[in-house]
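Pilot study result, target chain (262 residues):
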Amino acid sequence: MRFPCCFAVAALVLLAGSTSPVHGQAPPAAAPDRGSQVALPADASYTVHRAIDVTRAALLAADDRAWSRAKVLSWGAAPYETRLRALWAPEGLYLRWDAEDSAPWATMTRRDDHLWDEEVVEIFLDPAWAGKDYWELEISPTNVVCDVRMVAPHPTVTSDLTWNHEGLETAVRHEKKADGSPKRWIATAFAPWAGFRSLPLPAKVALPPAAGDAWGFNAFRIERPNGPARPTDGAVNRAWSPTGAQSFHVPAAFRKFIFSAQ
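Predicted structure:
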């Protein structure tokens, strides 16, 4: 897919509802490249700092100054490196992915389409460390979203696409190299805390989280370099925390997403 300018206008949307059914996500037709399958240390974690003196608009626009307080989590080898950042505020959680990609593409256009069959960035968040009924967010290079209540993980992998995160906002921006060819795409999201409460969470889960609270999480990237004509050929599925399975949905691979007071 080609983009007409160096910085495509961010497609900021307040997303509407969906009527997709509960279903099981099927594995890809061909075995993808999953990179290293060496498990991360059990104490691996990501610290989520507070967003201070920045606006929602600046964070969703991927303004680097607005994101300067966020730690950078990187995974995947060239040419498909991916970086995740997160910040939290009293009103909600902010997320940002930077995906290096010389030929981003997407054909799906509807919320809760099966984005995992194309190119996408993803995150799973398990506020209760329950290993089920956790939060999944996927964003495509064209800012199509799939937000999911994951009912059950691998090997049954059952998801509820009728669930939607109320108030979710996302944006995607594309950057080009000096010669005009694609360099990377950047996806951002704002997820209000109130939207998490509609998951079947125990009352003990604080929203917004208290300083020191830790949720389970993992982050992902699916790259399909042969485009829509041959999407399964040479597919690259990369997890920050390798799962050791032919699925991302392995709660044993979740690590700590720790909310900092600072």
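One observation from the pilot: The chain has one domain: 13-259. A full batch analysis is planned for the follow-on phase.
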